Amino acid sequence: MNIIETPLPGVLLIEPQLFGDERGFFMESWNRRAFASRGLDLEFVQDNHSRSARGVLRGLHYQVHEPQGKLVRVVSGAVFDVAVDLRRSSPNFGRWVGYELSADNKRMLWVPPGFGHGFLVLYETADFLYKTTAYYAPQWDRGVRWNDPDIGIDWPLDGAPTLSAKDEAAPWLRDAEVYP
């Protein structure tokens, strides 16, 4: 596998090794021993699967206590996937990175604890899978507005996104409860 460091320390773009022929392909999306040998000794406790339609934007989400690390990938369609540093003590606080993850490119993104996460669906639908290092804890669930000008994410939008009521009401970064 190829692990690519992003401009945000700790956030990693991962390109798995593919084995393919005329029948299709095989890849390991997770192998604890292989990831640990590359410095990612992680224990996942929950797997999640979401399906969304084109133009749906989910995020920016995080758990302010019991933070989750997320290994994310797309198995159908494509998304623009974003991680935002939400650690006030970080020199990168409020900075973001974004990458297209798709069924075609098979890339994964490691979003460590301390970061907000969100994605925009680019195709008719997208099936988005993610492994988490902590269980979902609704009492600690938080969000930051997807279009916060202090973050300045350059979403590849064609019109207004489709948002949940929760995401529409998310606070601005300056008002949000974030990590120390």
Describe this structure in words.
32% of the residues are buried. The mean pLDDT is 96. Strands 1-2-10-7-12-5 form a six-stranded antiparallel beta sheet, with no helix packed on it. Strands 9-8-11-6-13 form a five-stranded antiparallel beta sheet, with no helix packed on it. The radius of gyration is 16 Å and the shape is globular. The chain has two helices and 13 strands. It is mainly beta and 180 residues long. The protein has a single domain, classed as Jelly Rolls (Sandwich). It is 6% helix and 42% strand.
Query: What name is given to the CATH topology?
Result: Jelly Rolls
Count up the domains.
1
CATH second-level architecture: Sandwich
User: Mean of residue pLDDT?
Assistant: 96
What is the helix tally? 2
Strand content: 35-45%
Characterize the largest beta sheet: strand count, sense, and whether it forms a barrel: 6 strands, antiparallel
CATH class: Mainly Beta
Keywords, separated by commas or semicolons:
180 residues, 42% strand, Jelly Rolls, globular, single chain, mainly beta
Secondary structure layout:
Blueprint: E1 2-5, E2 12-15, E3 18-21, E4 24-27, H1 32-37, E5 46-53, E6 57-63, E7 70-76, E8 78-85, E9 96-102, E10 108-111, E11 115-121, E12 125-132, E13 141-143, H2 165-168
Antiparallel strand pairs: 1-2, 2-10, 3-4, 5-12, 6-11, 6-13, 7-10, 7-12, 8-9, 8-11
